[in-house]
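Repro:
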Amino acid sequence: MKITLLTDDLIVGYSDSELAALRDAVPDADFACCRRETVSFSELVDSEVIFGWPPIQMLKELVNLKWLHLASAGANNYTDVSLYADPSVLLTKSSGTFGIPIAEHVIGMMLALSRCFLLHHGDQREGLWRHEHRESIELYGSNVFVLGLGDIGTEVCRRLSGFGCNIVGFRRDASLPHEFVSDVRPVSRLRDSLPDADYIVICLPGTTETDKLIGRSEFDLMKKRAIIVNIGRGSVIDTDALVEALNSHKISGAGIDVTDPEPLPPGHPLWIAENTLITPHVSSSSPHGADRRLAIFTDLLKRYMSGRPLYNIVKFDAGY
């Protein structure tokens, strides 16, 4: 059996010890490492298992592919089953790799925006000591809406639970219990709930159901003190509506790690929107990311070889 590991700018390569651990886990497999940008069809055609992001245009010809494991928590661009030669192909993702660093990124954005750090940093750069009152918001006692309760949303809630917040979680199936959220609601109740939110944290994937879930009418329902943070997918928010809401002070601020369009082009009005903190899709950055990603793949690979059920399976019909 051939297993191909694809490298790129994110997955820069594998050490001898990492490859040895994989070979120990699956001694009968033939492992190959290829650079995604330059990989040829002949290098992939015999692969039963691929780890990484193979060129989408090749998928239809990869007749031996039984399992594709993505190195990301999202499955965007790979969720159309008609792309594959075998419609029964297994598709999994690396959920569990990114929750910790992204949750810390979310908390950092929430604190920076609620404590007016952007304004104070601007004063610092100008050498100004302005001691006048600036309205800061406490996380304590605030109503925090977390949209999406997967690995990332769960890690966000885990950390928020120590701040004394009132956490309200939103997910497709609200009947499922959650360790850190006692108030779980279906996404269909979001609009009715929005007037109560002090913070809205978006941890949702980009699907047809979530496309522009937050638009002008949703911003109209929010408090003027509300802060929105998006580390899910940029398409969940109507960008034009977000810019308008920020500049007209319909909401207090925004922390944005994902945008639509992405990358955010120079001169886009979101760059200079009022009280906005933008990071370039780096919330998952961590010195431990590669080890966690490889550990998940290794565990899944052992399960695959022994015929045990896999986890982190992407549902083609749902898009995640």
